[in-house]
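Page header: ASSEMBLY MODEL / two components / 417 residues total.
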Amino acid sequence: MASMRDIKRRKSSIQGTQQITKAMKLVSTVKLQRARANAEKSQNYFDSMYRTVNSILARVGHIEHRYLTPATSQRKAVVVITSNRGLAGGYNSNVVKLVTKNDDFKKEDLDIYAIGNKGRDALSRYGYTIKEDLPDVIELPSYAEASALAARLLESYEAGEIGEIYLAYTFFKNTVSHEPRLMKLLPVEVEPEAESEAQAVMNFEPEDIEALDMIIPKYISSLIYGGLMEAVASENGARMQAMDNATSNAEEMIDKLSLQYNRARQGSITQELTEIIAGAEAIS
Amino acid sequence: MADKTFTLRIITPERLFFEGEAEMVEFNTTEGEIGVYPGHIPLTVIVKPGILRIHEKEGVRIAALHSGFAEILPEGISVLAEVVEWPDEIDEKRANEALTRAQDRLKVKTENLDIARAETALQRAIARINVLK
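Prediction written out in full:
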């Protein structure tokens, strides 16, 4: 059995760790609330954006447009949104798995646009091409940065360097459940159901195709921005959960060690007593 | 005409900028300035930098609307704006600086000048300054 001193040392070290995880949990709870409020505020915009774009696409039907028809290039771009910091359970590795475990993606044909250090590190270790590294974007997501990234992506798309654009992020369902998602940004795909329920005939000024030229970049920017907002909320949610688990695990270990410590203490007292009694008997 | 109102919603990625009843809305589009009354035919237009005038029952409110697009339906308008500001959110000094900068850039015709970008910047600065007047 370990000595009393060892057990005591171990216990106090775990108590120290528990204090840290407890504090981190509190911090991410506060951050989560803020991130969630932001995500909800922006939700409106994306819903309207999504609806509008779908109704436009439903109306124009299957026209020849560079943003709608598959491009010739085999290369694919993936925007991977992860966090800059770890200790968030499986949050980062789940997003990375979306890319590495996907059979449609060939390592040689992928350009990774990494938002967040953790995803960049993991993917570059696996040997993926990191085209852009944007760790600052996730710290303070702004629409301006999302649209700047969208503009760069569209530029490479139009230049024929990439044929498809994907977004890998974590969707924030609620505080306890987050779902890693892979979304195709370009070419835009119309959902079949949206096509059938297209309502009143919409007119465009300027003409359909010109309008699409201007609306689709905004659509892509808003999806990336939306992904960022969801990802920030999910990151803090995941970290909160991970830290909560860590805190209760530490609690469990402390309980176990306290028991061991008390047992060891009791043992040493009993031993001392027997020694004294034995000594007294020997004298008498 | 003026007794009819419709719902106006102006949404940005960061917030709900405005939601309420309006009698008429004016703003600038790629096809020119338009004013929309209730009962308009369904129309989608692309916004160009300019002044947004919201004619409410109580009076007219103005704002600087820079980019985005608007979905007009008979019963209301949704403006999906990337950037829109109330007059008190505009920094006059910065707007004036941006104006001179954009004008200079258009005057000095260097080789790799992005004319479209400079023009948009100019329009944006003008819209901001006009809103403040």
